[in-house]
């Protein structure tokens, strides 16, 4: 059974975050701290397969893909650590602008993020992160649901809003919108 998500209400910043013990998985959403347990085996299998397919495609390309734990500071380049109130660790992040990358992760919005839902993170992934990623103009947000074996893809429209998600099942091959010709095989992703 998965541990529940721990929450620390307050007004925390990235400067506070840097002082917390290593090895704990914390995220900051509008200054509120959330800690989650290590992901399940199934979660990790799905993440590894998604990373494998994306990584193979990105060989000799400029975009980079990262799996969690990888800090994404949703902030402006000029923001100081004590001004940053949103730090997430998406299960998968794709960043095509290398100027956003530093030794601590990504500072700014990735081009695409994927979250693999677990029972303790569902409301965060479907509500809080959806709004946060839209606000920070992340071009694509994928929510991967291991139990239902579906993927919901939100894409930023011309009004800089996410419209209705495109929903895909295990039988589908899904094109990543930020690339010309990358199709992810969901049958392999959800294979058990």
Give a description of the structure.
There is one protein chain. This protein has helices at residues 14-17, 41-58, 122-135, 186-189, and strands at 6-8, 25-29, 32-36, 64-67, 72-73, 87-88, 92-95, 101-102, 105-107, 112-116, 140-145, 150-155, 166-169, 173-175, 183-185. The strands form 4 sheets. It has a 6-stranded mixed beta sheet with strand order 4-7-10-11-12-13, with helices on both faces. It is an alpha+beta fold. It has a single domain (6-189), classed as Alpha-Beta Complex (tt1808, chain A), CATH 3.90.1570.10. The protein contains 4 helices and 15 strands. The model has no long low-confidence stretch (mean pLDDT 94). 21% of the residues lie in helices and 30% in strands. It is globular and about 45 Å long.
List the helices and strands and how they pair.
Elements: E1 6-8, H1 14-17, E2 25-29, E3 32-36, H2 41-58, E4 64-67, E5 72-73, E6 87-88, E7 92-95, E8 101-102, E9 105-107, E10 112-116, H3 122-135, E11 140-145, E12 150-155, E13 166-169, E14 173-175, E15 183-185, H4 186-189
Number of helices, counting only DSSP H or I runs of 4 residues or more? 4
CATH class placement: Alpha Beta
Tally of discrete structural domains = 1
- CATH superfamily grouping: tt1808, chain A
How many angstroms does the end-to-end distance come to? 19 Å
| Shape estimate | globular
Helix content: 10-25%
User: Mind telling me the C-alpha Rg?
Assistant: 16 Å
Main attributes?
4-stranded mixed β-sheet, alpha+beta, endonuclease activity, Uma2, Nuclease_put_TT1808, tt1808, chain A, 192 residues
Summary of the model, kept short:
With 192 residues, the chain is of the alpha+beta class. The chain is built from 4 helices and 15 strands. The protein has one domain: tt1808, chain A (Alpha-Beta Complex), CATH 3.90.1570.10.
């Amino acid at each position: 059974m998965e541990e529940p998500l721990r929450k620390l209400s307050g007004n925390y910043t990235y400067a506070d975050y840097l002082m917390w013990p290593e090895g704990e998985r914390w995220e900051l959403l509008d200054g509120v701290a959330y800690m989650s347990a290590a992901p399940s085996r199934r979660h990790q299998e799905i993440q590894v397969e998604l990373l494998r397919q994306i990584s193979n495609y990105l060989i000799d390309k400029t975009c980079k893909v990262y799996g969690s734990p990888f800090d994404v500071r949703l902030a402006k380049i000029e923001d100081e650590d004590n001004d940053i109130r949103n730090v997430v660790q998406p299960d998968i992040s794709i960043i095509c602008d290398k100027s956003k990358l530093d030794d601590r992760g990504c500072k700014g919005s990735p081009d695409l993020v994927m979250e693999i839902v677990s029972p303790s993170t569902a409301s965060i992934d479907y509500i809080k992160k959806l709004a946060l990623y839209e606000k920070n103009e992340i071009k694509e947000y994928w929510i991967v649901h291991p139990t239902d074996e579906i993927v919901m893809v939100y894409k930023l429209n011309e009004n800089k809003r996410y419209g209705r998600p495109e929903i895909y099942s295990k039988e589908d091959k899904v094109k990543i919108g930020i690339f010309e010709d990358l199709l992810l095989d969901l049958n392999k992703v959800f294979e058990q």
